[in-house]
Batch of 2 targets.
Target 1
Amino acid sequence: MSVDNQQVWKSKTVSDFGDIFRLYRIFTTSTGLELPTDLSNKFEQEPQDWHTYYTTKRKMINASEHDILINQANKEYKDAQKYLKTFKDDVNYSLLIQVASKMLWILDALPEYAGCYYILSYMLFIVNRMEDALDILDMGRTMNPTFEPFSELEKEILFITQAGNKVDEVPVLINDSLSPEILKVLLEIFHTFDQDHDDCLSPEELDLFVFSTNGQHPPTSFIEQMGQRFGANELGWLTKKGFLNKL
């Protein structure tokens, strides 16, 4: 088969089934994780004959029990969401490998299943690989542009990335006080995580702030100490003034 025909069938494969080979490369390169051998054997190298790959995959998908696969995928997606919320003091990499492997196997059988792209992107978000996380979101959006969680995660990633850039670009202190520019950025950050707009960060809001900035959920003792050390309301929640004092 000519090079031109190979490219045509590769493009058709990516259009119909997504680019799982590129997805595999992005995820493994970004995280440094070694996924199981059966996955690496299947996705590490692109097919030499894209036409054969396409026709074989099309037959496999057409012959599959779609409703049964969807039900299984929905269960794995919900389980993955629960697993990712269990990380507290550090990231459990063996669990990441387990979950990532399941997501890739699901995408091999259900290329349009957006939840898998979301979970894989969220994993890269956890380990602070923001650009690659956005790349995977874009791949998922190509397969399913109406999946709402993509936009929510993208907004969170972009906010953290842009806020970090803003902090780097402005002077932090002027005459031993926070500069107006840095104060504005910090207030934007605070109000983003102060979801109920009560000028305090509840334990859940503060947990989300810490997790969003360094990829780890803090222990409960840390949450409590933040309010005690820097300023809390009557419930022990970190106040806006305390947040700025801390920073």
Note: DSSP finds 13 helices and four strands in the chain.
Target 2
Amino acid sequence: MGRAAAGAVAALRPNAGGDPGSPAGARRAHRRDPRRAGAGDLHRSPGALTLQRTIFDDVHDDFRESVRRFLVKEAVPHTEDWEAAGAVDRAFWKKAAAQGLVGFAAPEDLGGAGLSDFRFNAVLDEEIAYTGAVGDYLNLLNDIIAPYLLDLTTAEQRERWLPGVTAGETICAIAMSEPGAGSDLRGMSSTARRQDGHYLVSGSKTFVTSGITADLVIVAAYVKGEENVDGLGLFVVEKDMPGFSKGRKLDKVGHRGQDTAELFFDDVRVPLENVLGEPGRGLHHLMRNLPQERLSMAVYAVAAAERALEITLEYVRTRNAFGKPIGSFQANRFALAELATEVNVARVFIDRCIAAHSAGELSDVEAAGAKFWTTELQFRVMDRCVQLHGGYGYMEEYEIARMWRDARVTRIYGGTTEIMKEIVGRSLGLR
């Protein structure tokens, strides 16, 4: 089975020492310790609100238990520190790599586990959302960047880059968005001109996750001045290449623990050995990987919504007003009944999408629909849960406040809700 089963599961030993606690100890009021989820919860997904699930096998359940134990011990206690710093300590990625959680789809001889089963990705995505761990890079690397490094690289490129990536020593990023382009991939202004065995890459990128800490950046730029080549190319820029500079670390409303940056390229000389795939075919490569990227976001959204409902149910059972728990008020019961049902519906839909993707059958239209529906639901759940917490829901020491601010961007990144609806709408013959 490789390292994800024989390593990531077995190497994550229970009771590895210490009490992980919660991000702020006792100040995280009404936070259920994620460690309390036992084996009986695993087929029901991260939380306790969902229907019985059938898409996972025992090995995925073992993996879930191990991932949760690792995140609660090594990530959750550092949430506030990492958010204050605006970046995760690089040592954490090495610890995650040692557990087989970084690049597990890579071949075993290059440090991975050779696992192409997306259900492992889904488990990791869900546990990051459910535990509240700052682990955006794990989603980014395994779900978004890894396909480029595995499917488009030559044997030499894989041997050069993957050992460092899977060891957690080489941090990667992908730079597509530009200040003036947004979701319009064809509107990019970054260029790459071939000259003397290199491509001169020029332009600027923004909203680059892990941009500050990245050692390797996959950059999308239009190939110019080359005969028989017309289109986007993908170029791997290394951090020390002359002409490559990192701008400011962007000050975000949410996901504060994950660095996000502006990047600048001024005639960066990228050798031909650092070109990914076929020059001019970059748009095709990007579009091919978008369904998995969007499904990953949908998986995260549903798990986060489940967690929000869980902590809110705990809160309304214990918070008293007018002499009784606020959960006993009909208006609140009805609100939570509606949200719980919607989340269950979303869970069934997303499990179907996970199964389809694992079988190689998920379409871009289905992925777009999953992305917009679940992220809209996620924010609606978060907003209602904040309301049910009252003034406490707006206080930083309450978990729901952080979840609420983290949820807002999910309707934007990876393709806005409006773009996703456009994809679905056009599939209906409406143009």
Note: DSSP finds 13 helices and ten strands in the chain.
